[in-house]
Amino acid sequence: MSKDPTKQKIGIIGGGQLGKMMILEAKKMDFKIIILDPTKNCPAHSIADEHIVADFDDEEAIRELANKADVITYEFEHIGIEVLKELEDEGYKIYPTIKSLEIIQNKYQQKEVLAVNNIAVPDFISVSNIDEIKSAGEEFAYPMMLKSCTGGYDGKGNAIIKNQDEVVQAYESLGAGSLPLMIERFVPFIKEISILACRGIDGEIAVYPVAENDHQDSILIETRVPAEISDTLKEDAISLAHQVMEVFEGVGIFCIEMFVTEDERLLINEIAPRPHNSGHYTIEGSITSQFEQHIRAITGLPLGATALLRPIVMRNILGEGQQGEAIVEGMVEVAREDTLKVHVYGKEISKPKRKMGHFTVTSDNLVEAIKKAEEASKVIKIKGQC
Amino acid sequence: MSKDPTKQKIGIIGGGQLGKMMILEAKKMDFKIIILDPTKNCPAHSIADEHIVADFDDEEAIRELANKADVITYEFEHIGIEVLKELEDEGYKIYPTIKSLEIIQNKYQQKEVLAVNNIAVPDFISVSNIDEIKSAGEEFAYPMMLKSCTGGYDGKGNAIIKNQDEVVQAYESLGAGSLPLMIERFVPFIKEISILACRGIDGEIAVYPVAENDHQDSILIETRVPAEISDTLKEDAISLAHQVMEVFEGVGIFCIEMFVTEDERLLINEIAPRPHNSGHYTIEGSITSQFEQHIRAITGLPLGATALLRPIVMRNILGEGQQGEAIVEGMVEVAREDTLKVHVYGKEISKPKRKMGHFTVTSDNLVEAIKKAEEASKVIKIKGQC
């Protein structure tokens, strides 16, 4: 690290909304930023110092990024790791480490590492063909989840199998064995919660309060903080988050999604080695946003305070209507709610269910914030226009 | 205004730290930004969509900016207004309006408008030569302030005259009559306070809490919020801020600096028609930062909530040592204070006393925040390196 840490150039693989929000924080401290993203007018484009327009699997471009940057990070975990592994071995700084990324990328390995370390996860088993799925069905009973071990996000790569008759269809919908597969026992959860945790290069760990999430069609719709769960569960969740960060030796911000079961147990659902949609609330809700925290961690700065400033609700704005040039509707109307903050990601094209933006509402009273957010989500829309 | 307000392109005259901090807020909502600044690598350069590199008095460049932008604003008030007046007359949207800017630019006119509207200001009189300054000395008694009516900032353009023997020297230090001059009665104030106020295009007004300021050599050093003054004075100050915004019909964020006299009266010292150094605390301290509020006002969005989230102290980081490439020292050390946030403006060259950055500390306890900020200001330095 340079004596003046702000002189470090940060390379980000991905120039979507997560990259954009990282840059908005990094620029406060005057870090220089290079992004790599195939889309010229991606959300982060206009605020990056330099943009390497290249595919994520373009090894030459990734090497160029590594040579120009002092430290590399990434905004999504589904990237080819071969070249990154080589670069890490050659001494380039990449955070989170490729060692931790490699395990997390594969949901089976991720769960195995957690299970080996006595961290509770739903029961799971590797499967590679229809017969193995059917035997899993006998062991776990239906319904159960079929998941591709790699590459899934926002519910893609997951298929619920309600009975034995659905096995073949589910198997085919996930590539008919072209990707490694696993079965997870279905967890009849009563709540989905998530926790952000960050680990510095030196091992310092900072954990955020527990957030409570709602999904629709496997896409996050709403996050509420603080979560409405017992103090005991909160303590358990925070302790689990610490354990996870130790196990993976993760550097940077991680999001740990958990299920709360009917009998008040916590099971880890998934870990994301990056800023997470369910952590967007931290921009307005926390002393240190998840994006600032990530930048601090990967540049060797001490971590910031994670306390919640006020109860807060975050709601996603998903693309509606047809595919086309993104147009925001209802911005003026919702902004009349004077604690409501709209984030528009700047994706040129809106598609149905694409994450186009989000907004937060803060209040001294979470119930009030939830109500206001629900009303606003009926008014603000991002639609495609041809 | 376009149906989708985020489609507006904002033109900013000036790409310094105020422009930069405006853009960081505007980008959250995905506004497009064009700046005009003579310095290629000015603080706002890397996050603007487009940068017209031109002098502030380059009329052709300002016309280019106006033609490319949907709305124009500026980060400092000492700009030539002839072309802006023409543009305003031609129907271009410029906020704050050039009508309000023209009055505020001239400290004599500014005070006159305030006085006519029964808003208390220190006694003042226009002077144009040594004899008139001496007669003012007889009327107001010494010490008194000689000020150039136009062009001053950070104490430049002001000279204190302690007795009649200093009249000639003060007169000559302010250009010997080349600029319009005024004398102000010296106010033996016990505190300097400031208030941010914002007015929307439709006349909506939002006022922030009272901030308390310390200056050194006429340069702001520290701002503390909430101000330690009586509730009555706070109410008076807030009411004055409302009056000022009505009088000037200002659109956008204004900062109103006031003196608190020994007998607990408030006198308006100066008005800045722009985001102000004493309002930087709002980034971490307030629900809506002064920069976001300004962007909301000039783009026709409703104003945001101005409540303080936590007691907060802001301290400036002024250039130290020799002039040269700016290097930050002590960043890691001060960041160990986990509520401390450093803003590095990204000016390439550090000069003694140049505003190079600032930091804030928040705490539930203002006294604790003050102490921590004082300690940190001994550690974090921005210096020139050759």
Notes on the protein architecture:
2 copies of one chain form a homodimer. Chain A has 386 residues and is of the alpha+beta class. In chain A, strands 9, 10, 11, 12, 13, 14, 15, 16, 17, 18, 19 and 20 form a 12-stranded mixed β-sheet that branches. In chain A, strands 3-2-1-4 form a 4-stranded parallel β-sheet, sandwiched between helices. The first copy, chain A, has a 4-stranded antiparallel β-sheet with strand order 5-8-6-7, sandwiched between helices. Chain A folds into 3 domains: 90 residues, Rossmann fold, CATH 3.40.50.20; 63 residues, Dna Ligase, domain 1; 197 residues, D-amino Acid Aminotransferase, Chain A, domain 1. The model of chain A has no long low-confidence stretch (mean pLDDT 94). Chain A is 30% helix and 30% strand. The termini of chain A are far apart. Chain A is built from 12 helices and 20 strands. The first copy, chain A, is globular. In chain A, helix 1 crosses helix 10.
Q: Any chance you could write out the topology, listing elements then pairs?
A:
2 copies of one chain form a homodimer.
Chain A: E1 9-13, H1 17-26, E2 32-36, E3 50-52, H2 59-68, E4 71-74, H3 82-89, H4 98-105, H5 107-116, E5 124-127, H6 130-140, E6 144-148, E7 158-161, H7 167-173, E8 181-185, E9 189-199, E10 205-207, E11 211-216, E12 219-225, H8 231-248, E13 252-261, E14 266-272, H9 282-285, H10 290-298, E15 312-320, E16 324-329, H11 331-335, E17 340-344, E18 349-350, E19 355-362, H12 366-379, E20 381-385
Parallel strand pairs in A: 1-2, 1-4, 2-3, 15-20
Antiparallel strand pairs in A: 5-8, 6-7, 6-8, 9-10, 9-11, 9-13, 11-12, 12-15, 13-14, 15-19, 16-18, 16-20, 17-19
